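Two proteins follow. First one:
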Amino acid sequence: MTTNEVAKVFDTVLSIPSMNDVVKIDLKISRKNVLLLNHVIERGLAIKADDKPSILLTGIPEENLQELKLFGDECLQKAGLIELSERLIALSDTIK
């Protein structure tokens, strides 16, 4: 399959009517994994124009990407890890 065909299939799956339904997920996850999950979300959303983004992310509306960011932030807040995450980000920025 070409990348255009993959993007069309992914877009079709995301267009299924029930895909916008809100679901409740009862999730028990370690603080370590909350921190890692948030980092993965942030890194995935921080793709620069010169980087090659995932074909699956190229057609995603900005509002859906913002929802993912808010989800990651909410996970950090519920785990009490916002300050730790901010400090780790500041530390990694000083290394760059």
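Second one, unrelated to the first:
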Amino acid sequence: MPKGKIIEDFVSQEGLRIFNDGSYTYLHSGNGSYSSIDIPICDPSLLLDYLWRVHDDLCGSDHFPIVRKNLFTSAQQRVPRWKLDKADWSLFENLFQAELQSKMFEKSNFNI
């Protein structure tokens, strides 16, 4: 079975999507021909969240870099939220006190 068919079957069976729109991602150094051999695959839920393109500079390789950009703000830019009411505060306090005690003893070693 040809490798392309194996990949096609896998993508289809797993319900995945391919980002590549047919853009060339590879330059054959021997004959100067272009092809689209790099296949960025993703879950369908991510397909509309990212912009995909091929960089126009080979950067010293025979494969063009693939640039993927998130169209929405990243999770790191969100304001953090915590479920403070679900914390085990007595356990936290006990662990904190034990850690604090151990740190105090580590720093109190005298060099004689």
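SUMMARY FIELD: DSSP finds two helices and six strands in the chain. Residues 3-73 form one domain.
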